[in-house]
Every structure is written in C-alpha cells, then in structure tokens.
Amino acid sequence: MAKLKISLSIILVIFSLGVFSQSAQWMVSSDNAKKPNPLEINPKNMAVGKNTFSKSCKACHGINADGKGRIQSPSLISETFQKQTDGVIFYKITTGKDKMPSFKAKLKEEEIWSVINYLRVLVNPSAVPPAVDVKLELSADDGQKSITAFVHSLDSTKQPIQDVDIHFYLKRDFGLMRIGEPANNTKADGKVTVNFPENIIGDLDGKVTVIAKVENNFLYNDTESAIGRKWGTALVSGDEKFNHRALWGGRDKSPLWLLFMANGIIFGVWAVIIYVIYNIFRIKKAGKIFIK
Ligand code: HEC
After folding, report:
1. Nearest alpha carbon to residue 212 among 158, 151, 159
2. Closest by alpha carbon to 161, among 43, 37, 38, 48?
C-alpha cells in the first residue's frame, strides 16, 4: 500500500511539473537570440534543410510545417513564429521543451541552421535562387571499363561544376539498374568516374547502355546523357538448352512425362464417361427383362 502511495505521488509530481512547464514561457536569453545564422540561403543547404525536416520534424510539425502533424505542435510558418530571430529558433530546436525533443545530440549544428533556412524559404520561396541548367557529357575508357561524367556550364566557356551528384544507371530490359556509389559527386574538374560492373549481360553483341542523370538536385535542373559500349557478355540465343525436351521448350519439345500425364488424364476421364454410359444401357436392358 505504501509503495502504491509513493508511486502515485511520484506520478502526480511528474504530471504537475509537466503542466507547470507547459504553461511557462519559453525564455531565450538575449545572447542566444542574437546568435547569427552562419549559413546563407542557397539551394545546397536548402536540400540539407529539407531532408532534415522530413527526417526529424515532419512527423510532429506536419509536412508543410503548419503544426498539423501527428501530435499537437505549433505552426512553424505562422507570422508570430517567423518573427523570432534565427538565434531564438536555433536555441529552441537545440534545447527542446516538453514534447519537443532536444536536437542538440541528434543533429549537426549545420543541419539545424539549414532547417531554419528551410522554414524561412517555406514562407518566402523567392529567397532561394532558382536551379540552373547544366550540361552533362559522358566519355568511356575501354581499357579500364569506366565511364566518366563531366558536368559543365551551358555557355561556351564550359566552366566545370563541382559537387554535383551524378546517378549512373545501366539500361536493362525492364528498367534502369543503378551502378556506382550511393553518391558520385563531381570533383573540382567537374568530373566523376564509375567502374563498369562485372558479369553484365548485354545484347546479342554484348552492347550495354550506361545512362547518367542529374536528378532531384536543388541547384541544377534535371538532365541526362547516355553512352553505349560493348562491355557486357553477349546474350546467347538459339542456345542448345532450348533444343531438347524441357518445360521451357516449344510445343514439339514438351517433356514425355508431361505428355503422358496430360493425355492420361484426358483418357481416364473419357474412359469413366464411356463406362457410365455403357452401364446405363445395361441397366435399361436388365429392366426390360424384369418387366416381362
Ligand atoms: C515529437 C514531436 C516533435 C518533433 C519530432 C519536433 N517537434 Fe518541434 N515542437 C513540438 C512541440 C510539441 C512543440 C511545442 C513545445 C512547447 O512549446 O511546449 C514544439 C516546438 C517547436 C519550436 C518552437 C515553436 C515556437 O512557437 O517558438 C520550434 C522552433 C520547433 N519545435 C522546431 C522543430 C524542428 C526544426 C524540428 C525538427 C528538427 C522539430 N521541431 C521536431 C514537437 C516536435
């Protein structure tokens, strides 16, 4: 009984603490409030901000940050919210309060500042410059069996562009197969190379098509390029595998056991039907004798 009382009072204390802190103002010291955002708003850290938001905040604050997530939470796009300085918002995200978790240990500072920029852009989309067009060129090294993508500006100066994540694919019959690393970022010379995987079956001549894409990138508009190479193993058709009796063979190449079984079933069923009809006639005959 005493134990129950103790645990009950502990629960009560915790509960009232919760109520108390919920009603308390979220105070942020002026030092923290003045802390400037070290990141400019650009498409690159916008991508980080967006990812961080969907990974860590969306569930509670809602997909549009309007507070309509799975739990009751404040809107992060309201006028009152947006009036706060980046420093205040940063402090609140790092420390957390009640149901708002502290992200100090969970996110890097850079991710938090990016998420703040992302929230600013949600209410003011023109704050981030639009993505630009780039050109993607592919070249192949037959000795190394590798493909190099070169990303450069559209104009005649062909300015190399660094840090563009290129997605490489092999064209297959029913879609694209991703090759290369999870991220293949261009180096300072605007280039990145992937090795062609081994044991890839190509067409009848062993030809394979590699496709490279710039896609889902905040800084650059989607673009793609393709290159064909005879680096695969040639596809063999008319293989002798198909020339003997097997399940995958043609009509005249079906396995004998299958022929006997299928035809045996048909024969068996007909035999039963004929036997039944024969017996019906016998019964009729027998009946006549009886009536006489
Ligand atoms: C588990 C749910 C949950 C998650 C996850 C969450 N929040 Fe919150 N957040 C809340 C709740 C609830 C409050 C209100 C806290 C209070 O005032 O008592 C809040 C408050 C805030 C505030 C202060 C709002 C104001 O009016 O000043 C900010 C800023 C904020 N969250 C940003 C974020 C960001 C950014 C993330 C992701 C990195 C995030 N939150 C993730 C639930 C959550």
Report:
1. 151
2. 43
Structural domain of 256: 238-264
Name which of 225, 49, 43 is nearest 130 in CA terms: 43
Q: Whose C-alpha lies nearest to ligand 1, atom 10?
A: 100
Please tell me whether residues 148 and 216 are part of one structural domain. Answer: yes
| pLDDT tens column, 152-183 | 999 889 999 998 999 999 999 889 999 999 88
Tell me, rounded to whole angstroms, the distance of Cα 33 from its chain centroid: 38
Amino acid code (one letter) for 77: I
Please choose from 53, 100, 121 the residue to mutate so as to test ligand 1's pocket, defined by most ligand atoms within 8 A of CB: 100
102 lines ligand 1 (CB under 6 A): no
**What Rg, from alpha-carbon coordinates, does the chain have?**
36
Among 109, 127, 145, where does a domain finish? Answer: 127
Provide the whole-model pTM: 0.57
Rounded to the nearest angstrom, the distance between the alpha carbon of 89 and the centre of ligand 1 is 10
Calpha distance 144→242 (Å, rounded): 36
H helices present in 138-255, as ranges: none
Number of domains in the chain: 3
Q: Is residue 291 part of a domain?
A: no
Closest-CA residue to 81 (of 94, 98, 65): 65
Query: 125: number of CA atoms within 13 Å, CB side?
Result: 3
Helix/strand/coil for 195: strand
